């Protein structure tokens, strides 16, 4: 999914669970309102906070870490979509 597609969902009022896998300092600098910061480095320890019956959009700075997080979470049975381009394209 592109950032434009995610923005369209948010502008249409759709509820979106957004997980930002950047480190806390990056997240503090700028983030999507309502997103949850869950750094990739801590994901395996915090994934229990996610619900397997919910859908999540995974974002990072450029798309690399979110792609890794998406692949990892899919293997664990989570319903996730990578947001290509990340905050650089936001």
From TrEMBL:
- Pfam families, per this entry? Rhodanese (PF00581)
Positions of the Rhodanese domain:
12-90
Gene3D superfamilies in the record:
Rhodanese-like domain (3.40.250.10)
Query: What domain of life?
Result: Bacteria
Q: Write down what this protein is called.
A: Rhodanese
Organism source for this protein?
Answer: Caryophanon latum
Species lineage, top-down? Bacteria, Bacillati, Bacillota, Bacilli, Bacillales
